[in-house]
Amino acid sequence: MDKERKYKEGEKLLPDVEPGRHQPPDKELNPMPDRELEYEENSNEKYRDQTPDDKQND
Protein backbone atom coordinates (compact mmCIF):
# COMPACT_ATOMS: atom_id res chain seq x y z
CA MET A 1 0.00 0.00 0.00
CA ASP A 2 2.85 2.41 0.81
CA LYS A 3 4.41 1.82 -2.61
CA GLU A 4 1.11 2.71 -4.30
CA ARG A 5 0.91 6.08 -2.51
CA LYS A 6 4.58 6.89 -2.95
CA TYR A 7 4.38 8.16 -6.53
CA LYS A 8 0.86 9.61 -6.63
CA GLU A 9 0.64 12.61 -8.94
CA GLY A 10 0.55 15.97 -7.13
CA GLU A 11 1.57 14.51 -3.80
CA LYS A 12 4.68 16.02 -2.23
CA LEU A 13 7.08 13.46 -0.82
CA LEU A 14 8.59 14.27 2.56
CA PRO A 15 11.56 12.52 4.16
CA ASP A 16 10.89 10.47 7.29
CA VAL A 17 11.70 12.59 10.35
CA GLU A 18 11.81 11.59 13.98
CA PRO A 19 8.82 13.07 15.84
CA GLY A 20 9.76 15.74 18.39
CA ARG A 21 13.34 15.79 17.19
CA HIS A 22 13.91 19.50 17.81
CA GLN A 23 12.11 19.70 21.14
CA PRO A 24 14.08 19.83 24.41
CA PRO A 25 13.78 16.82 26.73
CA ASP A 26 10.85 16.94 29.16
CA LYS A 27 13.05 17.11 32.25
CA GLU A 28 14.50 20.49 31.18
CA LEU A 29 11.04 22.10 31.13
CA ASN A 30 9.77 23.53 34.40
CA PRO A 31 5.94 23.31 34.52
CA MET A 32 5.77 25.66 37.53
CA PRO A 33 8.26 28.53 37.06
CA ASP A 34 9.24 30.67 40.02
CA ARG A 35 6.93 33.68 39.66
CA GLU A 36 8.92 35.91 42.05
CA LEU A 37 12.12 35.35 40.11
CA GLU A 38 10.30 35.93 36.84
CA TYR A 39 8.88 39.20 38.19
CA GLU A 40 12.35 40.39 39.27
CA GLU A 41 13.87 39.56 35.89
CA ASN A 42 11.10 41.30 33.96
CA SER A 43 10.67 44.24 36.32
CA ASN A 44 10.98 47.73 34.90
CA GLU A 45 12.55 49.01 38.13
CA LYS A 46 16.08 48.40 36.88
CA TYR A 47 15.36 50.40 33.71
CA ARG A 48 13.68 53.37 35.40
CA ASP A 49 15.58 56.66 35.69
CA GLN A 50 16.96 56.99 39.21
CA THR A 51 16.39 60.70 39.84
CA PRO A 52 15.66 62.26 43.26
CA ASP A 53 12.39 63.75 41.92
CA ASP A 54 10.92 60.26 41.33
CA LYS A 55 11.10 59.37 45.02
CA GLN A 56 9.31 62.57 46.13
CA ASN A 57 6.43 62.18 43.65
CA ASP A 58 5.65 58.55 44.57
TrEMBL record:
Residue span of region Disordered: 1-58
The organism of origin for this protein: Planococcus citreus
Protein name: Uncharacterized protein
Biased composition annotated in UniProt, kind: Basic and acidic residues: 1-36, 43-58
